[in-house]
Amino acid sequence: MEGQAERRSERLAKKQRVEAPEEAAAAEAVVAEAPAAEGQVAQAQEEEERGDEPGITRLERLCAPTAHQGAGLSKADLNALIDHGIHCVESIAFMPLRKLQDVKGIGEQKAQKIMAAARQLVPMRMVSAAEMLQMRRNMIQLTTGSTQLDRILGGGVETGCITEIFGEFRCGKTQLCHTLCVACQLPIENGGGESKALYIDTEGTFRPERLVSIAERYGLNEEDVLENVTYARAYNAEHQEKLLAEVGGVFCESRYALLVVDSATSLFRTDYIGRNELAERQQALNRFLRKLQGIANEHGVAVVITNQVQASPAGGPAAFMGPQVTPIGGHVISHASQTRLFFRKGKGETRVCKIYDSPNLPEGEAMFAIGTGGIQDAEKQ
Ligand SMILES: Nc1ncnc2c1ncn2[C@@H]1O[C@H](COP(=O)(O)OP(=O)(O)OP(=O)(O)O)[C@@H](O)[C@H]1O
Ligand SMILES: [Mg+2]
Q1: I need a surface site. Which of 142, 231, 275, 309 has the fewest CB within 10 A?
Q2: In CATH, which of 3.20.20.70, 3.40.50.720, 3.40.50.1970, 3.40.50.300 is domain 132-313+321-377?
């Protein structure tokens, strides 16, 4: 994750350089001086750019010889990796070595060579706390649409980790997911990530019309906004898990800042019924959540998942929340998400968000509202 933050800030620096007119002119002059090499320069620049995108270090880089940071892979090796659901070098750098040996045609020695190259291309070095603080300051946070909500979140939804939103029906979980899909396309200085969003819908409640209204609120072009949101409907828990393998591929093709799973738990609840299937359900849910965490690490995206609540026995751990409810999924989900937000209905049409668990935020509460333009401050209503 540290590597991602570092490279994201490098990418931003690069973007700023390109925006500086004198430098751009100088770069054009260099190309003009050597017209024969123009294609090569452009290609090299493109490759360099690609290499700098968070989560997009192309697998082809591993075809280079060992002396050039590669692993001397053949086309057949590359295809075997892709068939195995590995689409970029980041996926390799973050996986255990023994998993790499599950790929067809990759034995122990080759796996070690590939891993060594991957770890060189995607450095996962130790950093000092001071460096880590700097990286966290450079981290992109996505605005929720409500300044009050952003305030208690310390800026917005964090990229590179999992945020869970749980609460009863109609409390705004799906509306926040829609708002984030548009917000992540905003310029970084306006609380966005200048990137695309991917939405996995398990309940059939995704509505592109909502994206159009939210785009209007932010003054964004509605066609671009719609084009930048990739949608996938999951029909059962197994399908939901399989989709994640495809997500890795999609994230390697283009720059994404957000992955939504709305809801993460509902299909597991309907596909595994009764006490005798509970252990199996929790195992499957755990596997799914671990894959999500892998995606957050590898691609540096914000992963936002929603979750329902169920009645908890009186005096249970969630009794302080008011209505006696507790999130679905037990310990499996509570350990998977870094930040957990509890949404509930407030007075009138308002909604309240409480930080239920976070490694760095105090237990704050904020009021917000749902409007035509998505999540917004309650006062505006
Ligand atoms: N265009 C709109 N303008 C204003 N409010 C809207 C609009 N569309 C939906 N809402 C409000 O959003 C609320 C529903 O929120 P949402 O769908 O996010 O709930 P949820 O928490 O996802 O519930 P569930 O658990 O059932 O999925 C409703 O109160 C509805 O009135
Ligand atoms: Mg919903």
Answers
A1: 275
A2: 3.40.50.300
